[in-house]
Amino acid sequence: MLTAWLIYQHLRSGISVSLVFANYLCVDFLASADFQTLWYMNGVWIYYLFALFLVPLCQNASLRRKILLFFLCAAFSVPFFSDIRLMLFSRLPLLFLGICFADYGARHEEIPARLAAALIALSCLGWGLLVYIVKCVPDDRIWAYGLYWFPFILIAPGLCIVLSLLAACLDKVAPQIIRGCTFLGGCTLEIYAVHAFAFQVFRDALSDDILYGTDKRWILLSVLSVLFAVLLARVMARLTTKTQKQPAQQT
User: Fold this and answer.
1) In terms of C-beta density within 10 A (0-12 exposed, 13-18 middle, 19 or more buried), how is residue 191 classed?
2) Contact, 103 vs 58, CB < 8 A?
3) Count of CB atoms situated within 10 Å of the CB of 37
4) Which of helix, strand or coil describes residue 65?
5) Region at 144 (left for phi over 0; alpha for psi -120 to 50; beta for the rest)
6) What's the whole-model pTM score?
7) Could you tell me how far CA 82 lies from the centroid of its own chain?
8) Suppose 120 and one of 45, 81, 84, 158 were both cysteines; which one would form an S-S bond, judging by CB atoms 3.0 to 4.6 Å apart?
9) Closest alpha carbon to 49 in 24, 30, 33
10) Count of CB atoms within 10 A of residue 29's CB?
């Protein structure tokens, strides 16, 4: 997918050798390169790197230490205000929340109803805050200070609980929907890569003034992207299976 994207960029306006290497090494976004493709892939290895330090600090830690680590993660995004890389580093507090909940889940089988209700209430508060920000705060400030992403610190935990409850209900009344979601869940990388490339090409073909969702053709493009991504995932799965070494037979 990355190769197709780089070939497209070269044919469209040209691309330097250094930018090719920056994209293949997944440092294009971190280096603020002029041409960036799958910026989130830069974040994947960054998040893994942070997890190596955060997971041991979080395990069996006191609530005070977890709160301190959370605010340290939040503070780490401050140097990137008014910088496009804030899209990546503003997600660190959310990453740490995920680590905390994973640690909690490893020690407890269920979340108490009172805690679940409190998290859902915070999620509703986060959605309200996000709506207020979108309606009342100038767009340049929203992007400069990560206000599109920070409300999800409040939203995500409660949203995960609601989705889990919904999935549990669907698993009883319509298990085929869960199986379909599970299948698509195994294709998320391909879906992300294909739709990002397709959307960029389509936007270039139209106009920079055409925003996502303002044209009905985006819906068709989204459906086609998912279908192609599923096909790509199946092909990659078969290639991976064929290239794996078969275990030696015991005599």
Assistant:
1) buried
2) yes
3) 25
4) helix
5) alpha
6) 0.77
7) 21
8) 158
9) 30
10) 22
pLDDT tens sequence across 161-219: 999 999 889 888 888 888 888 888 889 989 988 988 888 888 787 765 555 556 677 88
User: Which has the closest alpha carbon to 3: 27, 23, 28, 18?
Assistant: 23
Contacts of 191 (CB under 8 A, 6+ apart): 184, 225, 226, 229, 230
Please name the amino acid found at residue 181: C
Residues 6 or more apart whose Cβ sits within 8 Å of residue 153: 93, 94, 97, 126
Q: Given the structure tokens 């069996």, which residue do they identify?
A: 60
Beta carbons of 197 and 158 less than 8 angstroms apart? no
- Identify whether the C-beta of residue 95 lies closer than 8 Å to the C-beta of residue 156: no
**Both tokens assigned to 157:** 């935990």
Q: What is the CA radius of gyration of the chain?
A: 21
Token pair of 244 as six digits: 């794996």
Distance CA 38, CA 24 (A): 10
Question: Contact at 8 Å (CB) between 91 and 43?
Answer: yes
